[in-house]
Structures are given as structure tokens and as C-alpha cells.
Design brief:
It is built from 10 helices and 13 strands. It is α/β, with parallel strands linked by helices. It has a 5-stranded mixed β-barrel with strand order 1-2-3-5-4. It has a two-stranded antiparallel ribbon with strand order 6-7.
């Protein structure tokens, strides 16, 4: 298999080639590689059909202060071989086409990349106790925020007696996003997912623990690639059978990234992702009688009118408001954090200048005028 074909299978294209040439230095045998696994800072990467262990260089680590600047599963990176070892050193991360982020655990403003360069996100939700239309709204907003195309996959259709009704509930909140009920165990409905699985295209799975993501991976792979676990009967939650992020090549040629179960993830982007998710809600704003309508008790409010008539579900509107408040809060924290970092940088710079002037004074050098 040729080098170009190997790379194309993993999603390499002209835009990555241009970025790679710009990031590479003359005289060094650099290799483009795609990160296929990340587990607590340890990486595995594919370069020209061969999988290597990969590590970040000290220079890269010193030059990047934020976690979302570090490699993630799906990233294309600039690497160099380490002597005769089966190891690569990562020198740079190529610009991402799409990026799925979440707020880092234990921080107030830091974000971490869950997956990069994803074309489609399968939002997996079980048709058992895991079923929650409000969570689907959040996940769709996250998908739009990343730049990838969302697709809702309703798993475990074999355990529900009201699948058509549940599909309608999700279609009512998905607002134009494809919705597919499937049963991975019974191989039912998987054929509808094949249109999204193409050579060189990357799919990421998003859903809570116990939603059936690992079972879906095994069904698409045709073998027991991922461990699966039982879910609790009372709430259909499962333990985290996927503890790391991993990219695998499907038999049909597409690429799939499984992620650890995440039930609640905060939005980190801008209002556009919410607007794309709740287009039906925001379309009503222009129909209000007053431009400054607060959509509460004002006369001629299109929102309240739609809720009263049943055109708009009150729970969906509350979900819209909740995500708007959450996004505003996250943006405010990020702004405050940036301001604090800028203040610290200014202090460090001032300290360096004072130290330099003091040293020049000791040496008898007059300050420049």
C-alpha cells in the first residue's frame, strides 16, 4: 500500500499536507502522524501505516501552557523518529478542522480536547432508562460547537415497546438532525449508519455510560474490540468500560473514535451552536410584538403564545434558557481567567524589566532615553 493511500485512509488531505509543509523544517526527517490513542498523556500514533508509541518533546511542552493545545485523539501531528526505536517525538499539532472540547475536570476555565478532526458525531442514547430528550439537546449543541455534523443514534431498540413514540420525541428536539433507532445486539438498523461511514471520514461517539457506545463499536467492527459492561436496572447507568479515547479503522474503511461516557458536558463555544440547536425557538423571537420582549408576561409574546398553543414545549424553552445561562457563565469565567493570566504576564514582564535596569545600573550603563 502506498504512503499516500495509507495517509488518505486515516483522513489525510491537501489542507493537512499544506499545514505539514509549513510546520516542517528543512534538514529534518519529519513524519505526519495521526494520534489514535491517548491515555493520561501517553500517545499512540499512526505514521504511514505503522503504529508507534509517541511522546511530546520538551520544547513543545514548554511552549504550550493550555491543555487544549496538546495532542488529542484525531489530531494530525508533526513527528520525528527516535533513532532505531519504534517511537516518535511530537513536535507540533497541525491546525484542526473540527474540535470537540469540554471543560477540564477540576478547573474553572481550562478546556480539554476530547477528539479532533471529526466529521460526524454519533450521539448515542439508549431507549431504556438512559432516554432523555434534554440531554440530546445539549449533545447536539456540543456537536455543532465542534464543527462536526450531529447524528442521533437511539440504541437498544430491542428493549423498548414504544420505539416510534421515542423517535418522535427526539425528532421534535433534534430539529433536522437525522435520528436512527438501532439494536447493536440484534444487528437491526445498522445499515442506516453506513452512509456516514466512508473511507477517510472520522466519526466520534458521544453518550453517557451505559448508552451502548462500546456495543455499537463492536457491532460495526464485527468483533469484540471494546469491553462492554452491564447497566444498573434502576437508572440504566453503566460503569465506564471505556477509560481512554481511541481511534479505530472500521472494516468498511471509515474511522471511529470511542470516548469515555460523559453524562453532563458544559458548552465552551459561542451562541451560534445554541442557535443551530434551537432554531425553532429563536425563530419565534422575531414574531413578538415588542423588540425588547423578555418572553415572560409581555402582551403579544410569540414564545408564550407558542407554549400556550402547544406549538412549543415549555420544557424545551427552559432547556434553551438553561444552556444560554450556562454558556454565558462559562464565557465569563474564561474571560476572567484570561484577564488574570494577562495580569500575571504583565507582572512578570515588569519584574524582568526592573531586574534588567538594576543590573545595567550596577554595571554603570545609563538607561536609554
Amino acid at each position: 500500500m502506498t504512503q499516500d493511500l495509507n495517509r488518505a485512509m486515516y483522513g489525510w488531505d491537501e489542507s493537512f499536507e499544506e499545514s505539514f509543509q509549513d510546520a516542517s523544517s528543512e534538514g529534518t526527517a519529519y513524519l505526519p502522524a495521526r494520534i489514535v490513542r491517548e491515555d493520561r498523556g501517553l500517545y499512540r500514533a499512526i505514521a504511514d501505516g505503522t503504529e508507534y508509541a509517541a511522546e511530546i518533546t520538551g520544547a513543545f511542552r514548554n511552549a504550550h501552557a493550555h491543555s487544549d493545545e496538546f495532542p488529542a485523539v484525531g489530531d494530525w501531528v508533526v513527528t520525528a523518529p527516535v533513532g532505531d526505536e519504534e517511537k516518535l517525538r511530537i513536535h507540533a499539532v497541525l491546525p484542526r478542522k473540527t474540535v470537540f472540547k469540554r471543560t477540564a475536570v477540576g478547573t474553572t476555565s481550562e478546556t480539554q480536547v476530547v477528539a479532533a478532526n471529526v466529521d460526524t458525531i454519533f450521539i448515542v442514547m439508549g431507549l431504556d432508562g438512559d432516554f432523555n430528550p434534554r440531554r440530546v439537546e445539549r449533545y447536539i449543541a456540543l456537536a455543532y460547537e465542534s464543527g462536526a455534523q450531529p447524528v442521533v443514534v437511539l440504541s437498544k431498540s430491542d428493549v423498548s415497546d414504544i420505539v416510534p413514540e421515542q423517535v418522535v420525541q427526539i425528532e421534535d428536539v433534534a430539529f433536522g438532525v437525522p435520528v436512527h433507532p438501532i439494536s447493536s445486539l440484534q444487528d437491526d438498523g445498522l445499515e442506516f449508519l453506513s452512509e456516514y461511514i466512508c473511507v477517510g471520514k472520522t466519526i466520534a461517539l458521544l453518550g453517557s455510560s451505559g448508552a451502548g457506545k462500546s456495543t455499537l463499536v463492536n457491532a460495526l467492527m464485527g468483533n469484540q474490540t471494546m469491553d462492554t459492561g452491564e447497566v444498573r436496572e434502576d437508572d440504566s447507568r453503566g460503569r465506564h468500560t471505556t477509560t481512554h479515547r481511541q481511534l479505530v479503522v472500521l472494516p468498511t474503511g471509515g474511522l471511529l473514535i470511542d470516548t469515555p461516557g460523559m453524562r453532563e458536558i458544559q458548552l465552551t463555544g459561542d451562541d451560534e451552536s445554541i442557535g443551530s440547536t434551537f432554531g425553532d425557538v429563536e425563530a419565534l423571537f422575531d414574531q413578538c410584538r415588542f423588540r425588547d420582549c423578555q418572553h415572560d408576561q409581555e402582551p403579544g409574546c410569540a414564545i408564550q403564545g407558542a407554549i400556550d398553543s402547544g406549538e412549543l414545549d415549555a420544557k424545551r424553552y427552559k432547556s434553551y434558557l438553561k444552556l444560554k445561562r450556562e454558556l454565558a457563565f462559562t464565557q465569563r469565567r474564561q474571560s476572567e481567567s484570561f484577564a488574570q493570566e494577562e495580569k500575571q504576564r504583565n507582572r512578570a514582564f515588569s519584574k524582568m524589566v526592573r531586574k534588567s535596569l538594576a543590573e545595567r545600573k550596577k554595571m554603570g550603563i545609563k538607561p536609554d532615553r
